[in-house]
Amino acid sequence: MDRGGLWMAFGAFVIWGLMPLYWHLLKSVPSLQIVLHRVVWGAVLVAAWLFWKRGRHWIRDVLAQPRLAWLLALSGVFIALNWGLYIWAVNAGHVVETSLGYFINPLLNVVIGVVFLRERLNPAQWTSVGIAALGVLWLTFNYGSFPWIALTLACSFAMYGVIRKIAAVDAIPGLGIESLYLLLPATLALGWFEAQGQGGFFGHWSLGIDALLVVGGALTALPLIGFSYAVRRIPLSVVGVMQYLAPTLQLLIGVLVFGEPFGRDRVIGFVLIWIALAVFAVDGYRRSRRRAVPAIV
Question: Where is the secretion signal located (predicted)?
Fold first, then answer.
């Protein structure tokens, strides 16, 4: 196994898992403006990297395919929705629920694969999805509120994944095109906030906050670049297990650092979802091992 790819995947998931701590540092900035800065500086970084590596070909190659261009515009909308809700939820005290969304996401990917891509589930996968559904229902009816943040995060990221699976484009150029689609609206929105005296560009907060807003763009792009590097070099079964590192860290931060409630009802709901994930992960690992064993003829 490629150790460089393993460390890249580990680093990407750790950064994603620790992001609530970073966004919490920007709590004084309105969540929408944090997202807009994240879009702008992420786009600048990714586009600069692609121009350095590939020149202008990566833009021309995508825009020459109208269907692909529209798909990436749509995926950009879903990832922007995901980012926006995530940052708002973190700074509104819902870190535990955001972690639930990313625990649910792999299982929701399976369901979407059945509905949209006509994939078939084996009994273990159906069992996993059913247990997870019980967990969500438990949280809904026993915790006292519908987990709309978790489900919206899971659905938006799952739809993003479906579109990116359909769109025949490499990960980083695809991210670059998505970012460029979002760049102009984000810049105009920041300009509007600036004109209204409600923030927007720099000078309204401390230099430290301004720097954090810029670095937030890098923290958007770098884990995605590292992840795309890793998935080409290590087995997807390993990536599939490691992906739970991020929501686990988010959950621990929400409970241990921010002091969010995690009583008996939440514990039961999360345990059901963790059992579903364990069934799902073990089944995936076994199937990958069977595919890896050469046939004896």
Answer: none
The pair of three-digit structure tokens given for residue 63, joined into one six-digit string: 């825009």
CA distance 144 to 74: 34
At 74-104, the pLDDT tens digits run 988 998 899 899 999 998 899 988 988 888 8
Domain spans of the chain, in order of start = 3-290
Tell me the pTM.
Answer: 0.81
